[in-house]
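Issue: copy button drops trailing tokens. Both records pasted manually instead:
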Amino acid sequence: MSQSDVIIYFKFNVPSHKFKLYAGGIAGMAVDAGLFPLDTLKTRLQSPDGFIRSGGFRGVYSGLGTAVLGSAPTAALFFCTYENTKRLLKHNSILTVWEPVVHMTSAAFGEVAACLIRVPVEVVKQRRQAGFHSSSVHIFRSILRSEGIAGLYRGYTTTVLREIPFSFIQFPLWEGMKSFWSERQGRPVSPWQSSICGALSGGIAAAVTTPLDVAKTRIMLADSASIEAGGKLVLVLRSIYFAQGIKGLFAGIVPRVLWISIGGAIFLGVYDKALTTLNS
């Protein structure tokens, strides 16, 4: 089947509201598959065992299968929730006045939904990246055996508390930059322009929310009997600060900003391109 055949099939056989699911899934897989080594380095820099003991520069693709398996449904669920919430809120004439509030609220709902899939994937993936076991399947079974389903959702609250501030920064910036650029040139932004807006907004949001990401990583990697495994965000942040200072709170900031800047360009650019293609 050629590319044109695929586009024609989607246009006439797939309901338009499902395009967001497909576009989000395509975008998520593109990012996770392409930038996985940066994510691994970030995880190891944030690990309580230290960068070298967690694997250093070796095996930077450990856990890739888990990430790719979870990326499409996670991204699809986020964008479907984000776009539909945004559509519902825009029908409210009061909220339409404050466009950034619509984007922030929509992104928050999107993250809460996406984390239902993202967190179990992150728990398994990060333990694989940190060299806990030889396979993701082994890690998954070990978690279920020792901690049950709750173990797969360890750090859910912290992840949501990381993702919501991140989205509060990234999505209003992304939408605002696109609107400004669109007004200046007198036409809607193209996918490559959306990519640039995604890179800038993602990089800024990544830098600001790094301490929350460090805390999330520590909670997910912590021994089940440790205090950190309890998932109390403030307690974990204080522990990191007293042990390592500001440097510890911003561990892995360089690969995180690089990963999310490039990832934001690919993710939001591919999303816009896929959505435009499917709707054309």
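Record 2 (pasted manually too):
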Amino acid sequence: MGRAVPAVVSPLLRIAPHGPLPDLADGDAVIFTSEAGVTAWAALGGGAVGRAWCVGARTAAAAQILGFEVAGVAETADALVALVAQPGPVVHLHGRFTRGDVVGRLQARGLRVSGQCIYDQVAQPLSDEALGVLGAEGAICVPLFSPRTAEILAKALPTSLRATLFVCAMSEAVAAAAADIRAADLRIAAAPTGDAMRKEVANCLTSRHVT
């Protein structure tokens, strides 16, 4: 039986919904590339209008709860670009910070796709508890789930950093964004899913004897 490992939770960003919502007609399709998009849509008073193309099972489940008909689910935005088959109109409901040019690549395929920013990913400072851990000797496993959080952490790390960091990135894109983090090791999850990240973190804790 494994031993308990202390965890410090210090969110690096906050989702801040903002309008206006796009004017969608019944039957129009949307693209959600994260669960945050679904949450922001609902917070702004949006309801289900038609089909939704989603990145990730959690995103798809959240869209279904709102009443969308999930037309397709992909593990990554790249895979979703290849999957979307509806000629249009389709609206990508995204955050202020985006990657992969989903709209442009779908338009290049001849699809009628537009984008609408409905939330911001506001950077948050590291908590006092997190700064205390980073400023002390010891090994720390750091899971990073998005390129945005990787970039925020790289800028937020204290100059007095004494801890040894072992980073677990959810994808190649997250790993690339974490390049400036002073890490002893950087692992990439086998798939961009919550289950794969849990396994990678468990492997990190076991193999690196993180305390």
